[in-house]
Structures are given as structure tokens and as C-alpha cells.
Amino acid sequence: MIYFAQARFLVLLLAVPLIPVLYGIMRYLRNKRLLRFGDGELVARLMPSWSGTKGWVRTILFTLAFMFFVIGMARPQIGAKLKEHQSRGAEVMIALDVSNSMLARDYSPNRLDRAKLAISRLVDKLDGDRIGLVLFAGTSFVQLPITTDYVSAKMFLNSISTSSIPVQGTAIGEAVNTCIRSFSAQSEKSRAIVVITDGENHEDDPVEAARQAAEMGISVYTIGVGSLEGQPIPVNGELLRDQDGNIVVTKLDENTLREVAKAGNGLYVRAGNEEFGLNPVISEIRKLEDEAFNSVVFEEYDEQYMYFFGIAFVLLVIQMLVGERRMFRHLFDR
Predict the structure, then answer these.
(1) Which helix or strand (DSSP H or E) is residue 178 part of?
(2) Strand-pair partners of 296
(3) DSSP letter string over 251-290?
(4) Lower Cβ count inside 10 Å, N or C end of the chain?
(5) Start-to-end CA span in the chain (Å)
């Protein structure tokens, strides 16, 4: 597969078809000026050494040389080889609550955006660790499979909203089970699940799910998002109301999150405006035994630009040697 390190120079290839067109226009205007001196055949006899064909040959050679030179400037590269890359660290699955309750404004601008910002900052600090992302509300799914591609992880974060999952609710237990299934086969010891939610679980038994994770050697950490007093939920410019018309207030359920963390041999942290809670959790994860992970990657790229520059140089030399005059002329005219 060819990769261009300086692909912006490829825009100059748009000029390639213009070169022969401009030359053709110049030839036409030149011939028009020559006809002012007299008959075309007479003018041709007065310039017996001039070759119109060679002019086109020179132009085509110059056009090809320019094309290869531009491609060389774009620095084409070819993947030299596949190599097994090894890194050491932990595997961390983050389960992020995207239910409507995460729109409450206990934090600025709201719970969900503040959580996304904290995860983004966490990704910036990772080095060798593998990270995955599970979104959940009334159900759950893997948004980002376990990976060391931190750039993609941050890109996926930008697209997350409460509409990512149409089924409302807070199924923490299902989210934990989804995380369990998402770890790689290489990981056995250093595995952790970080659940970020307000803890208002109405769907399943998250404590039992955390206990099963702990039995498999997976630590479950919880980060509580919200306030104990509760906040209304703004949806589409209005406050969310129940069937009776009362304003729905979402409160942080710390008891459930503490029980989940305890059952999962993890730690519960309440998110604050300054310290969201991920740093203390990651500090605990750092105490786990690092594991070696293998992945197949392109180790290096072979530069190909010199070949294109070489071809361009040869074409320019040939173009200069061609000249514009005929190679043989009649030495004597009758």
C-alpha cells in the first residue's frame, strides 16, 4: 500500500494536462504570426531545420518529468514490513452512562460532557495501556473495541451523545457484562472496568455482575456523577417531566455504586468539578501487574521519492538532448 507523507503537493498534478494545452496554444499563435510573412510552404522552406514534431516530443517529455517530480515531492512510501509490536500495561474498559439523566447540570456544561472531557484527558496520559469504551443506557454496546489507538479513542468520544442509545434506562449490570466480553484474549491479570454513571440503576443487578467480574480477576471501579440533592434534566430546551407532569429530578445513588465497587474488588470515587475521579482510579489500576500485549503493525515505511526524482531527471536530460531542430537536412538543394 502506497502512503504519501506530503500528499498536499499532489494538487500540483492538476497542472499536468495544462502544459501540453498551453504549448498547443503557443504553437497556434506562433504559426499565425509566421503566416503574416507569406505563404506557409515558403516560410517552411526558409526554416528547413525547424521541427514541429520535436517540439511536441519535448513538451511531452517535460510534462512527464513534471508529473514524476510532483509525485516525488509528495514523498510516496511503501510499508516495508509487518512486525509484531509488544507493549506493556493494563486493559481498561470504560462504561459510560449516556442516559438522559447525564444531561443534568451538576457540572459544567453537564454530566455527560464533563465525563467525556475527563476521559479525553485520561487518554492523553496513557502509555502502553489498552483502552475500550462501552456506552450504556437501557442497553449497552461497544463503542470502541480494546485498542492502543488513542487518536481514534478521542475521535469516538466526540460523537457520543444521549442519542447514541435510543433505549432509555440505566442498565449498569449489562454494561459490566458487555465490558467483560470485550477484553482481549491476551489479557488475564491486569484488567479493569471503570463505570461512570449517576448510579440510578433500574434495569438489572449490577452488584452481581461486578461479583462475577471479580471472580474472573477483573476489578470494577465506579465513578459517581451527580449531586445528592438532585438536578432536573433539560431535554430539547425544556425540563423533563414524568407522566403526571412533575419535573423529573435525578440524584446520585452512591450506595449502589459503593456496593458495585466493593463486589468488584475496586474503588468508588465521587466525581468533583476539579477532580472528576479518573486519576485516583487510574492510580489504583497502576498497582496491577502489567501485562505484555502483542499486535502486528507496520514497523517502518520505505521512502520511494528518490526513484521518482530520478525518472524526472532522466526525462529532463532527454528533453534537452532532443532539441527543436531536425537531425538531418539536405546538404544541397537543386
Answers:
(1) helix 172-182
(2) 84
(3) ---HHHHHHHHHHTT--EEE--SS--SHHHHHHHHHTSPP
(4) C
(5) 63
Is residue 109 reached through a cis peptide bond, with omega within 30 degrees of 0 on the bond before it? yes
Tell me which amino acid residue 80 is.
A
Contact 222, 261 (CB under 8 A): yes
pLDDT for 103-160, tens place per residue? Answer: 999 888 899 999 999 899 888 888 778 899 999 999 999 999 998 888 888 888 888 9
Q: Which three cell numbers stand for residue 170?
A: 440505566
What is the tens place of the pLDDT at every residue in 243-281?
888 898 989 999 999 999 999 999 999 998 777 888 888
- Quote the cell numbers at residue 144: 470502541
276: burial class by Cβ within 10 Å (0-12, 13-18, 19+)? buried
User: Are 300 and 80 within 8 A, CB to CB?
Assistant: yes
